[in-house]
């Protein structure tokens, strides 16, 4: 069963879109990180003492003071970056600007990889491996979207300002803070502005980083920052499989060729069977028809119609089961239509294209990595909830590497909509960013 | 049973798209006029002698000589008019140009009505009532389509050149011919370039002419010219009902809101039931799903999805039966989806918009009007077939007025496609246009 705290956190998350003002504790709308099942928080972390020591240290306090002093700069950075369009597959300009910002904060080994990820290294003192801290450059909005930021009182509005430009801004703020405080870490930290996190990007930035790029076998742990407050750790990776399923046929005239197989009827048959699938609620498993399209005119039998579907689960076997069931339905629907109407002019055929493949993964809540992160909440007397999401962290999770997504420390709202925005509240946001900073320093081994 | 001749005519019609070169006798592709059931030709027309007399008269021969002499001008007119875009609801410029051409041929009472039909009168000697001869200005192509005519040997290519710009050109050719020959008619003839014949126009030009315009109660008979050779008389009007059926729901996130009603499943259910409907083959009755659309992204439960459907029959009761069956399916599919999934966030609802309504009609083959037209074929030893179509003539047919669609006299191909074209063959085309001219003169009472 879910605990009180975890349920409250989830409720806050799911309410975030509708009631942003109430969502300080967990501002990430469900539409941004795809939260799945919430797991109960663990008993108090064994690292709580260590977290307390870190957060009461002079150096940490100095860093936090820099977060506060630089808050306006951080907001300005977010505005600057938001106003550079970064549609899926069009992140280059924003990446270039972000790389220059990372360079200004003293990172070395500056690089733009083959996918378009931009990155720079903050060398550690040794013995801590390589930690990646990332936020994604891409937004869900097409290139033509007006991304000019509009300010209204304490709210800033612009598509993409929350998801995930606040993450990019937080990284800069944290870098400036730990640099100013002279905090060193055992780990090398690679700060990354990555591409392809949103739907059509299909995590191609992470796939480059972990499967192909020069750091591919060197990364020991991973944290991505997404728009959310400091109450949750996304340590479960919901897997997804997405298909654009097209039924093709010979087409024809609605009158002259009546009786000919019609791909719309095949699609309807498949869609209806898909809708009848039973899926488990634990691990949470879901499916959806998101898009329908096809045909040329009302009085033509379509040459092609398609549906784009999404299937997800935080269970590997359960994801495979729903995917297998879907894939089994399709040829049956094709056969049924070819049997129901005339195939003299041609048959119905299937063109099923995979358009998304996010692996299932999990970084166990009781692992040292997650417990070091949880310790920060415990030290503050605010235990964190654990949730499953669909983020950049899915890739390292699927490789068995310690990986989570944390809140970037701002309150945002209406993610993925044209009314997307963030609230500006210095005192509150500095506290939130400081939690994330403490978490990074915990796992990176602050000295 | 169908006779040999009628079957051959239909075969030629249905082959026209694939084999334009063979289609001289019946060049109208099924995609242009929506031919339904073919009825056998009647016994030799009682007007055959009269038709023979007309066609062997000096005046008629003089008119035919003018058709031949003016053939290049006619082709030029067709090219000029084709190159003026005339998408559905965008016929004004082409109409203006056509009205100027009609004016040049000496018509009086020039007018552009409220719908955009352009027209001019050729006064008769009296006692013959008012005959309308029309061709439609609109094409199926959107405004952005390249309508520049390309010539390749004896073929001219451009979207809309066949359907129905050849009809507009034929009217001009026939006017010039009968004017030059000094042929008078008992009937007043109103020549019309009309709007809204193609799908989305829903016959609005005819509806204006017959239900609202200044001639509404004065028209005694109607002929429209469409791209086809001289072998068939479209004396049956296939009725159609078209709906854009939208299923709406609360939408939501594919993961966070899984279990919520999804309008795509309701649509699928309705579409599948639609596909199972049994319809009679005599009178020919058909149905189609032509377009599917809806949804915002793969990982959103759609707010709305829709299908656009077409139902047709040349039988009034049969059309109503298939329409009633469709309309009965829709609320059942809505109810089923509302029962199958959660309606906590909102229910599935229906928004069913009629987007096409063409009445069923027929001008009996044994009526004097049709028999006067048939006499021209009989006089030439080439009896005509009777077919049902979906054209401008549907409106006057539905009012019980004598009305048909005749071939404009050119061989065209690939109607409604970007490869639409016409062949240029002077000797053949002049013979074909002369048949149409003779038919008009028969019913208008040439003196």
UniProtKB/TrEMBL annotation, chains A, B:
Specify the signal sequence span: 1-23
Quote one Gene Ontology molecular function term.
hydrolase activity
* Keywords linked to the UniProt accession: Hydrolase, Metal-binding, Signal
Q: Supply the InterPro entries for this chain.
A: Bact_exopeptidase_dim_dom, Peptidase_M20, Peptidase_M20_dimer, Peptidase_M20A
- Which residue numbers delimit the Peptidase M20 dimerisation domain? 239-333
Q: Gene3D superfamilies attached here?
A: 3.30.70.360, Zn peptidases
A UniProt-annotated Pfam family:
Peptidase_M20
Keyword Ribosomal protein assigned = no
* Entries under PANTHER family matching the protein: ACETYLORNITHINE DEACETYLASE (PTHR43808), PEPTIDASE M20 (PTHR43808:SF17)
Q: What's the protein called, per UniProt? A: Peptidase M20
Organism of origin: Caulobacter zeae
Its taxonomic path starts at: Bacteria, Pseudomonadati, Pseudomonadota, Alphaproteobacteria, Caulobacterales
